[in-house]
Design goal:
Elements (H helix, E strand, L loop, with lengths): L4 E2 L16 E6 L9 H10 L9 E3 L5 E3 L17 E6 L10 H18 L8 E3 L11 H8 L2 H18 L6 H6 L13 H9 L22 H12 L5
Parallel strand pairs: 1-4, 2-5, 2-6, 3-5
Antiparallel strand pairs: 3-4
Helix pairs in contact: 2-4
The structure holds zinc ion.
């Protein structure tokens, strides 16, 4: 994952550690469509007599991700839900205006990164707009629409799945060797793919041409590495449930 976070050195009056993380909450600046910085927001929230900036991340209009409150700390961004959530603020006002493409892409990559690290599913139970938790127009109708229509969770799942498939199986062999390589049995398939291949055999989606091994499993699957990668991606997308 190529995620770049711009670190900040804010001082916070007091912070406490969050022990549960199972929710990601999206916010906007609101008011007027300004490119609020983490520094600015830190100042505003200090003036509220809070420990400091309440959001864990601020995504500027050019896509830059700035660190707000340390990720381990309980935030101040979603009343009643701070003890188990991470707050991401996208700079701007999204009732009249729209988040930029870079804000959306980087937000989704950040969601994917957080979801992997805390083992949170990327779905509508775990990724919400502020207004789904309490009566507020935050994060603006135009950003909320992208949450509601599945754009945000879809892109975040894409970032999570693509990156993890690349990272579990780095391209370290010469292309020629890889293209002729064939996997004929479940046991010979790469370990990261075996749960998927097993499921496909058990469901009858993969059956080979009839040659069986001593366990009665197909022994002539004739799978290439690219096919296996695609099966794993499809499995993660829920196609073989
Ligand atoms: Zn909010």
């Amino acid at each position: 994952m190529s995620l770049k976070i711009v670190e900040k050195d804010f001082d916070f009056s007091s912070l406490s550690e969050r022990s549960v993380t199972d929710l990601i909450v999206l916010h906007h600046t609101g008011g007027s469509d300004i490119d609020a910085s983490a520094e600015q927001i830190h100042g505003w929230h200090k003036n509220n007599n809070w420990a400091g900036i309440g959001y864990h991340y601020v995504i500027r209009k050019d896509g830059t991700i700035e660190r707000g409150r340390p990720e381990w700390a309980i935030g101040s961004h979603a009343y009643g839900e701070n003890s188990h959530s991470i707050g991401i603020h996208l700079s701007g006002e999204f009732d009249g205006s729209y988040p930029t493409e870079k804000q959306i892409e980087n937000c989704c990559e950040l969601i994917a990164d957080i979801a992997v690290r805390y083992d949170i599913p990327i779905d509508r139970d775990h990724v919400v707009g502020h207004g789904e938790l309490m009566a507020t127009s935050c994060p603006g109708a135009n950003l909320q629409a992208l949450i509601d229509d599945g754009t945000i969770t879809g892109k975040a799942n894409y970032y999570r799945n693509c990156d993890s498939v690349d990272s579990i199986e780095p391209a370290c062999e010469p292309q020629g060797a890889r293209s002729t390589e064939r996997f004929n049995t479940l046991a010979s398939c790469p370990e990261w793919s075996q749960p998927t291949i097993r499921k496909m055999i058990e469901k009858g989606y993969l059956c080979g041409n009839g040659l069986k091994d001593e366990d009665g499993l197909p022994a002539d699957l004739d799978l290439s590495r690219d096919m296996i990668r695609l099966f794993v991606i499809n499995d993660r997308a829920g196609l073989y449930k």
